[in-house]
Amino acid sequence: MGPLPLNPSDAVTGEKGLLAHFLTFPLSQITSRAVLLTASCLMLFWAFPGYGIPSQSVRVTIIASKYISPYLQAVEGIQTGLAEKSDITIEVFNLEKLDDKSRLELLEEEGPRDVSLFVAVGPEAARYVWERIRSERAIRVYCMVLNPEKVINEKERGCGVPLNIPVEAQMKMISGGFPTLRRLGLLYDPEHNAGFLSKAEATAPLLNLTVVPLTVQSKKEIPSTLERQWNHMDALWLIPDRTVISESIVAYLVKEAFLRKLPVIGYNRFFYDAGAAMAFVFDYRELGRQCAQKILKILSGEACRDAPPLFHVWINGKVAERLGLRPSENYRPPLQLGP
């Protein structure tokens, strides 16, 4: 089995009216009105930094990395979130199915009255958009990209909705869902997640937790590493890591942890269904709608900054009961009992 996929304002519509209004004033008032008009135009210019005077229409091109359900649901969410804006036209492409002609059309310069915004859904699409769409007038946004700083050159970073749930937020959910847990065994490869470990270790004392590093550099090292550490942890915490995670490995880890009465904490629906006591779960359509809101805010002039993804935390009540765990009695969103 291979690695698990990750679950995975109008801009300016009244400049003509503003000019006509300006022309109705007597000559004696032209100078002051001209100043106001100039100031207004400058404000509108800065609403689209780097793209010149804003246009009355926006073309949004959505490029999905692959033809798989999570990406398709995210695309649907983006379309739904933008559907009510009559000045936005939407095109959707699948990177896997783009022929040479379609790729050339994507790279063509747009008309002088258009604002073009490209939305990359998934890492492959993000890499394509940032490498191939070179127009200075194009706005670029990503959605459903894990660790975008590893996919996109830091100097060219745009913004969007990554798949990274802040480490502090995850640990708060773990502590809030299972208050009796204190020692979290974090299985990771330092090549991919040394930064994650550092953030977790810095956050742990604030929540009265301890992080037990379970360092591996290959799948073969997992059994021996765990054998040395099973007695030093209260839960096994699994995070996205290409060295560690595959379907067969997850099944093995859940089984071994269960035999030792230890809960597993995972990061998508598959972990929950496989027997994890807690899982961080994404609603992909919800992520798409969140991305659409980000797009609308950018078009209205808001600064381009990442937004932490919306997520849900499912507690597996049956597994928790069999492990003798006592979940928190008062759940608050995004914590909830899973289906």
Low-confidence stretches: 9-55
The percentage helix is: 40-55%
Oligomer: single chain
CATH homologous group name of the largest domain? Response regulator
- From the 3D structure, determine the CATH topology of the largest domain: Rossmann fold
Your description of this structure?
The protein has 339 residues and is of the alpha/beta class. The protein folds into two domains: 57-163 and 286-299, 3-Layer(aba) Sandwich (Rossmann fold), CATH 3.40.50; 167-281 and 312-337, Rossmann fold. 40% of the residues lie in helices and 18% in strands. Helix 3 crosses helix 12. It is elongated, with a radius of gyration of 25 Å. It starts with 14 loop residues before the first helix and ends with a strand. The model is unreliable at 9-55 (pLDDT under 50).
In short:
The protein is of the alpha/beta class. It is built from 13 helices and twelve strands.
Please give the structural blueprint.
Layout: H1 15-23, H2 30-47, E1 57-64, H3 69-82, E2 88-94, H4 100-107, E3 114-121, H5 123-132, E4 139-143, H6 148-151, E5 159-161, H7 167-177, E6 183-188, H8 190-203, E7 210-215, H9 222-229, E8 235-238, H10 247-259, E9 264-266, H11 269-274, E10 278-281, H12 284-299, E11 312-315, H13 317-322, E12 335-337
What distinguishing features does this structure have?
single chain, 339 residues, alpha/beta, Rossmann fold, 7-stranded mixed sheet, 5-stranded parallel sheet
